[in-house]
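Researcher: Please translate sequence to structure tokens.
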Amino acid sequence: MSRRIAGLGDDELDRIVELVGRQNDSVVQRDLLRGIHESMKGKRQVKMPDNWNPVYPKLVESSRTEVHETALNLAVIFGDERALRSLQTTIVDGSASVPKRQTALRTLLANQPPTLPATLHGLLDDSAMRPSAIQALAAYADPKTPSLILQRYAKLTADEKSDAVHTLASRPAYALALLDAVADKTVTRTDLNAFTVRQLLALNDK
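Model: Translation complete:
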């Protein structure tokens, strides 16, 4: 089905979305949504189908998990603000399970909305999500990130320090902050393993 949907234009996609909305059989909804989602692999943003707005609430409230999750993933690709707000709320919800929060983060990170760095910065003080936040910040070039990580560096666990060093070695601007931190002993030289050194050398060659 995904191969058939992959070649469809906007009008055909609109009709499929309308068909999904008319369906009461969640298995059929799941299969149609799967086909749409598979056809969009590798795409971060796609124009929202004209009739997506009225269909989405029905799908996201489905009792079938696959329908709910696939609809949410598609909504992110379509830039649906309802989905983006919902996922951001889940990420910072301390009462939600950690796996659920991490899944929400992965979904958003695949789309990289511009508002995500601020959320990730807030998670640096959330012990349950801090490792995921530190790793995710490598995907963004945000000037606030190095100082916010380094301000907390001394209190990080060994694994979190490793993640922090890898994130700070991932971008030239971040790497400069990392080298300054090594120079002033905020980060010890022994925290820079061979892989990190290679990262820094590679950035220096660019």
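Researcher: Any highlights?
Model: The chain has a mean pLDDT of 89.
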